[in-house]
C-alpha cells in the first residue's frame, strides 16, 4: 500500500473511532449547529495561521477552542437565543477568514482542500498531530463519560447532585473543538460536522443503550471511511465528500432496516 494511502486510511479510521461516541453526545444534546459554527470558525484559524506563519493545525485548534469558550460565555449571558448567536458567529468567522485570506499577500491557498478536505495529501507529520489529538480526546471522553451522560439525561438533576454542569458542558465543547480542528484535512471545514452527526444518527435507530449507540456510530464511521477511500481510489472522486456520501448511504440503509422490537 502506498504511504499516502496508508496515512489517509489511519487518519480516517482514527477520526471515525473518536467521532462515533463524541458525535453521539452531539446528537443527544442537539448540538449540530454548534458543531457547524466551530467548523466554520476553523477557516479563520487557517487564515490567521498563514498570516502569522505558524503551524496550521495548531492555529486551527487554538482558534476553535477560543471560539468554544466564547460561545459558552455568551450563551451563559443569555443576551440572544442560542441559534441566533450560533448563526452570527458561524457566518461571521467564515467570512472573516475568507477576507483575511484575500488580504494575505504572497500566499496562494487551495480553498477547496480546506473546505472539502484533502485526505490523500496527509503527511506523516499531519498524521502524528491528528492521532495525538484524537488520543487525548478519547482518553478525556472515557474519563468524563458518566458525567457527560448525567448532564445529557437530566441536567438539572445532575446539578442538584453536585456535578459541575457548566464545567462538564465546557469540556464537551472543547473536545468537539479539538476533533474539528484535527479532522480538517479529512473532510474539510464544511463537512466535518457530518461525521459527528450521520453515523450516530444511523446507529441511534437500532441501539438499546448509550454505549451501543456510541460503538455502532464508530463502526459505521469506519465503514464510511473505508467505502469513501475505496470510491475515491477507484472512481477518482474527492476523498472527503466520498466518505460523507458513504455515511449518508449507511444512514439510509439503517432507516430501511426494521427496528428490533
Key attributes of the depicted protein:
261 residues, mainly alpha, ABC transporter involved in vitamin B12 uptake, BtuC, globular, ABC_BtuC-like
Structure, described:
The protein is mostly helical. The protein has helices at residues 3-28, 32-52, 56-77, 82-103, 111-116, 124-153, 155-160, 165-182, 184-187, 192-204, 210-235, 239-256. It has one domain (3-189): ABC transporter involved in vitamin B12 uptake, BtuC, CATH 1.10.3470.10. It is built from 12 helices and no strands. The longest helix has 30 residues, at 124-153. This is High-affinity zinc uptake system membrane protein ZnuB.
Instruction: Name the average pLDDT.
Output: 85
Write the CATH fold name. ABC transporter involved in vitamin B12 uptake, BtuC
Overall structural domain count: 1
CATH class: Mainly Alpha
What are the secondary-structure elements, in order, as H or E?
HHHHHHHHHHHH
User: How many helices does DSSP assign?
Assistant: 12
In the predicted model, the low-confidence regions spanning at least 5 consecutive residues are none
Q: Which shape, going by the Cα principal axes?
A: globular
At CATH level 2, the architecture is Orthogonal Bundle
Biggest sheet architecture: none
Strand content: under 5%
Oligomer: single chain
CATH superfamily: ABC transporter involved in vitamin B12 uptake, BtuC
Structural class: mainly alpha
Percent helix, as a range, is: over 70%
Question: In total, how many beta strands?
Answer: 0
Q: How many angstroms does the end-to-end distance come to? A: 44 Å
Give Rg in angstroms.
18 Å
Membrane topology: Multi-pass membrane protein
Function: Involved in the high-affinity zinc uptake transport system.
Transmembrane segments: 6-28, 40-73, 85-103, 115-145, 165-192, 239-257
Protein name: High-affinity zinc uptake system membrane protein ZnuB
